[in-house]
Amino acid sequence: QVELVESGGGLVQAGGSLRLSCVASGKIFSINAMGWYRQAPGKQRESVAAITSGGTTNYADSVKGRFTISRDNAKNTVYLQMNSLKPEDTAVYYCNADLVVVTTTSAYKHLEIWGQGTLVTVSS
């Protein structure tokens, strides 16, 4: 079974920082893109940042200059460093991965999977 496990969420004051981590585990052959999404109460899930296996990144306009996405390919881990946090950053943050896994029959299968989410609350 392949899964993503996030950590690092919590409560922080406006202007503060948090670092989210997401580890992929299981019979993984390769990981293509990894990314972070968020969903605030009453709103749709939105993309925050993404990073390819080669390190190319992109960000939502609302977080550019404040958030940094990075990954450690050897550890199958993606990070989101969040600085200068604002109350409007409050949301459940989800990790997403586009990857290839090895099945029980030793075949390769392409999957897109999600983590369970971690809550980030920014107080004013």
What is the gist of this entry?
With 124 residues, this protein is an all-beta fold.
Structure, explained:
With 124 residues, the chain is an all-beta fold. The chain contains no helices and eleven strands. It has strands at 3-7, 10-13, 18-25, 28-39, 46-51, 57-59, 67-72, 77-82, 91-102, 108-114, 118-123. The model has no long low-confidence stretch (mean pLDDT 96).
Shape: elongated
Uncertain residue ranges: none
| Global structural class | mainly beta
User: How is the main sheet built?
Assistant: 7 strands, mixed
Intertermini distance? 40 Å
Fraction in beta strands: over 45%
Helix content, binned percent: under 10%
Query: What is the strand tally?
Result: 11
Please describe the structure with a list of short key phrases separated by commas or semicolons.
single chain, 124 residues, mainly beta, 7-stranded mixed beta sheet, 4-stranded antiparallel beta sheet, 11 strands, 0% helix, elongated
Chart the SSEs and their pairings.
Elements: E1 3-7, E2 10-13, E3 18-25, E4 28-39, E5 46-51, E6 57-59, E7 67-72, E8 77-82, E9 91-102, E10 108-114, E11 118-123
Parallel strand pairs: 2-11
Antiparallel strand pairs: 1-3, 3-8, 4-5, 4-9, 5-6, 7-8, 9-10, 9-11
